[in-house]
TrEMBL record:
Origin superkingdom: Bacteria
Transmembrane intervals: 20-42, 62-85, 106-130, 142-162
Protein name: Uncharacterized protein
Native source organism of the sequence: Streptomyces yunnanensis
Keyword annotations of the record: Membrane, Transmembrane, Transmembrane helix
């Protein structure tokens, strides 16, 4: 006979945390769509010579498509911090499906991710301070606005991670 240990359910996340998680999943879309346009051959603000120099064709196109997809998938993981599928992993995931993730591992991974994103993406707030000779003036402005939402990704993830940690700590789960 096997004894089943009941784990208390997590308190529901506050509305602000749910909104922040959704916002984190959305901030990668503008720059991702812009990169997808580059991969399809649209110069998207680059001069013709600049577009050729950047190598957005062939393997370069695969790279920018992969970067866009990876960024969005990582951003979508933030939703797991406020959704039931983040409490028990979906069964279709090989080896770990149906199990509860280790809350400490989730908190550490999300915290490190938030720190890395904040450090790595803050530079986009200064987009206009540096010249981009391969871009047209209008393209430079548009690209700057499309990349600007990425600055919020790290802080949004940090806020949702702190909420996740607090809710886990309350239940001891």
């Amino acid at each position: 006979m096997t004894a089943t240990r009941l784990v208390p359910a997590l308190p529901s996340p506050p509305r602000w945390a749910v909104r922040a998680a959704h916002a984190a999943a959305l901030v990668t879309l503008p720059s991702g769509i812009w990169r997808l346009l580059l991969a399809t051959g649209f110069t998207a603000g680059y001069t013709e010579a600049g577009y050729e120099a950047m190598g957005f064709t062939g393997r370069g196109a695969l790279y920018v498509v992969g970067l866009s997809m990876a960024g969005e998938l990582l951003a979508l993981l933030t939703l797991g911090l406020v959704r039931p599928w983040g409490e028990v992993l979906p069964r279709w995931i090989p080896l770990v499906g149906g199990r509860r993730p280790n809350p400490r591992a989730v908190t550490v991974a999300a915290g490190l991710g938030a720190g890395a994103l904040t450090l790595g993406l803050t530079q986009f707030a200064l987009w206009w301070a540096f010249p981009h000779p391969n871009m047209t003036p209008l393209g430079n402005t548009i690209a700057g606005f499309l990349y600007l939402p990425l600055v919020a990704w790290g802080p949004l993830l940090a806020a949702v991670t702190i909420d996740y940690h607090r809710r886990r700590r309350v239940t001891g789960a």
